[in-house]
Amino acid sequence: MRLNVKSKFSDYNIIIENGILASAGKLIVEMLDNKHLSVRKMFIVTDSNVDKIYGDTLKSNLEDVGFDVFKYVINPGEDTKNILTLAGIYSEMVEVGITRSDMIVTLGGGVVGDLAGFAAATYLRGIEYIQIPTTLLAQVDSSVGGKTAIDLPQGKNLVGSFYSPSLVIIDSEVLKTLDNRNLTNGMAEVIKYALIKDRSLFEMLTEITSREQLLDSLDEIIYMCCSIKKEIVQKDEFDRGDRMLLNFGHTLGHAIEAHYKFKKYLHGEAVAIGMSRITECAYKNKMVDEKILIEVRSIMKHYGLPISDEVKNKELLGYISKDKKNFGEDLNLIIVDKIGHGKIIKAKTDFFVE
Ligand code: ADP
Ligand code: ZN
């Protein structure tokens, strides 16, 4: 399955197929031919977990089609997404002689994608890059939208840029080695897409009852999610208006993550609590029926995602007002008033009744 994403600056394909990692070299050559580019060096950035399982396969696959391949392995985890690791990547690229006409290939989850994407955006004022996301979260979330970033000690994703890849290769087969917690983490974003935009996806999700069945359906699910994000992002490239729908569950989710200093929950888990809680508030504010609240909570539980936490909404208000998506006095919030339909509302902090 292929999706073509168009933005003001670029036009690239997302190719989704089970087992496609083994054809990465061929696909990259095809893309370069179409763009009449000739690239000699490929600089792979990956983390040590992913490297152990897929690093050599990718490297030799790229060598087989004639590239000169370098691989840079970083430590796994969000703590690595910082300016020091970035500096290490730049130095190594200079060391091995990466020029404007060479490319970065990111192989890993959101951490690797964000970090190496930002390296691509900034090294020599920008070189092309190819994204091979290996977590479900990264496959459905960072493949579209071109966001790259690093963290600062003061907060997550505080430095970054919009910079689209030249090609995204999504192999759902690699998700078989992902642990349950990280798979479930990605499902939170999948559920988000279903709730804000796609009732049929929601129904499909309710019918899946095992990890095996889920893994078998993921190609189609990932395609649906990337299509939804693509439609929304193409309408609203620079993150105002409609793109806010993608923020469903995220205002509270980010606050919960920050409240626990990013230790207690993974991103998707916090967003799952955020989606449940905001729906609860919408219900208490008489904006949605109880039936919606029940459906939202039960799909989260079906996938083993958390729906509540002991922290009170009022303890989160400080984080919420700092959230960069809330300009001016009113909060911009997303609620789901029907399954498959998200909407943007303006509210004051008293919306968050307990
Ligand atoms: P996210 O995409 O959720 O931001 P990370 O980049 O932090 O995630 O990756 C989450 C964890 O999963 C990391 O420890 C990473 O090394 C590991 N990982 C990523 N992809 C795979 C995979 N396909 N198989 C096994 N482990 C993986
Ligand atoms: Zn998210």
H-E string: EEHEHEHEHEHEEEHHHHHHHEE
Question: What is the share of helical residues?
Answer: 40-55%
Give every kind of bound small molecule, once each: adenosine-5'-diphosphate, zinc ion
Let me know the average pLDDT.
92
Rg from Cα: 20 Å
The CATH class label of the largest domain is Alpha Beta
Short synopsis of the structure:
By secondary structure, the chain is α/β, with parallel strands linked by helices. It is built from twelve helices and eleven strands.
Structural notes for this entry:
This protein folds into two domains: 2-177, Rossmann fold (3-Layer(aba) Sandwich); 180-352, Dehydroquinate synthase-like, alpha domain, CATH 1.20.1090. Helix content is 46%, strand content 20%. The chain has twelve helices and eleven strands. The chain has helices at 24-34, 48-64, 83-95, 110-122, 136-141, 180-197, 199-207, 211-235, 250-259, 267-284, 290-302, 313-322, and strands spanning 2-6, 11-16, 41-47, 68-74, 103-108, 128-133, 147-152, 155-162, 167-170, 331-338, 341-347. The chain has a seven-stranded mixed β-sheet, with helices on both faces. A two-stranded antiparallel sheet has the order 7-8. A two-stranded antiparallel sheet has the order 10-11. Strand 10 and strand 11 form a beta hairpin. Helix 6 packs antiparallel against helix 7, helix 6 (180-197) crosses helix 8 (211-235) and helix 6 (180-197) packs parallel to helix 10. The chain is globular, with a radius of gyration of 20 Å. The protein starts with a strand and ends in a 7-residue tail after the last strand. The model has no long low-confidence stretch (mean pLDDT 92). Residues 47, 49-50, 53, 76-78, 108-112, 134-135, 137-138, 174, 177-178, 182, 185 line the site of adenosine-5'-diphosphate. Zinc ion (ZN) binds at residues 141, 189, 250, 267, 271.
